[in-house]
Design goal:
Blueprint lengths: L1 H31 L11 H22 L10 H22 L5 H8 L2 H12 L6 H19 E2 L2 E2 L3 H23 L5 H16 L3 H8 L4 H26 L4 H7 L3 H13 L5 H20 L7
Antiparallel strand pairs: 1-2
Helix pairs in contact: 1-4, 1-10, 1-12, 2-3, 2-8, 2-9, 2-10, 3-7, 3-8, 4-12, 4-13, 5-7, 6-7, 6-13, 8-10
């Protein structure tokens, strides 16, 4: 019995550490971005590029050390699209949105991604959703609207919140593209390949990064190194290790804790106090996502 409990306990430890690392990325990104009160910060695009140059360097070391080799040629287009969406588009949109959206609200908006995954699974993979699943999607959508587009004056358009919703869509596309490839590659292998593909796409921002490196503060530079090595590389490594021994649906439920941890870290470190709309909308959105994840499936397509 004890020998069975040890791997299970180890997996839960990996999940908890990963959630803390991923949640920490929200306030750390906000800290590393250029702002009027932080002139030594990075542009959103150059921040994304440097973060994944660091992560891709670590990924390359892993691939070389494990003799993983190159992916199959026929898989390169799908891996490239996954890297473009889940790494390049996601992180540029995410960084742009965090310029004006608090860390806790940003985490709650990005947590909408399982809803996009469910919708794309229905449309592209011919999976089915139960009535509760569709109600969960509607509930989550209401929560996202409250967080990102409602304030004391009523409904208002917020391009930064919209960018974060776009980043949730981008990461949803990433996981849908990844699903068939994980039959041929380990989770860590695919992560490394997608990191490198996304970084290649982000190289278009290299002139911007070179400009920023001449102006950024040492604190901002250290924060980006942290983002590349820990939330990105180590976080994915721990998550994929846990994924080999736990059900995907059970793991996905843990992601709903991330906005709470992110809000707590931002409150303690950056003194960000969530608004009542963020708290209410976050609760509504997370309830909706849980409905999709726990009660949404009604069986495979015939």
């Amino acid at each position: 019995m004890k020998t069975q409990q040890r791997p299970l306990l180890r997996n839960y430890v990996f999940v908890i550490v990963t959630l803390i690392l991923w949640a920490s990325s929200f306030p750390v990104v906000r800290y590393a971005l250029f702002a009027e009160d932080n002139p030594g910060g990075f542009h959103p695009a150059s921040l994304a590029l440097l973060r994944f140059l660091v992560a891709s360097a670590g990924a390359s070391v892993y691939l070389a050390a494990t003799h993983a080799g190159l992916p199959r040629k026929k898989d390169l287009p799908r891996i490239g699209l996954a890297g473009l969406s889940g790494i390049a588009f996601y992180h540029v949109l995410f960084n742009f949105g965090e310029q004006a959206v608090s860390s806790g609200a940003a985490a709650a908006l990005v947590a909408f991604s399982p809803v996009f995954i469910a919708l794309m699974s229905v449309l592209l993979l011919k999976e089915h959703l139960s009535v509760w699943g569709w109600l969960g999607i509607l509930t989550s959508t209401v929560g996202v609207i409250i967080i990102g587009f409602v304030d004391v004056t009523g409904f208002s358009f917020n391009i930064y919140a919209l960018a974060l919703v776009g980043s949730a869509l981008a990461t949803g596309i990433y996981f849908v593209l990844a699903k068939p490839l994980l039959a041929h590659y380990s989770g860590m292998q695919f992560t490394c390949y997608s990191f490198i593909a996304g970084t290649l796409a982000l190289l278009v921002f290299l002139p911007l990064l070179i400009r920023d490196l001449g102006n950024v503060s040492g604190e901002a530079l250290v924060s980006v190194l942290y983002l590349g090595l820990f939330p990105a590389l180590l976080g994915y490594a721990l998550w994929n290790t846990a994924l080999t021994n736990m059900q995907t649906s059970r793991l996905a439920v843990f992601l709903n804790v991330s906005p709470i941890i992110a809000a707590m870290i931002a409150w303690l470190w950056l003194a960000e106090i969530p608004t009542s709309f963020t708290i209410i909308g976050g609760i509504v959105a997370i309830i909706g996502v849980l409905m999709v994840q726990l009660t949404g499936e009604s069986g495979d397509a015939k």
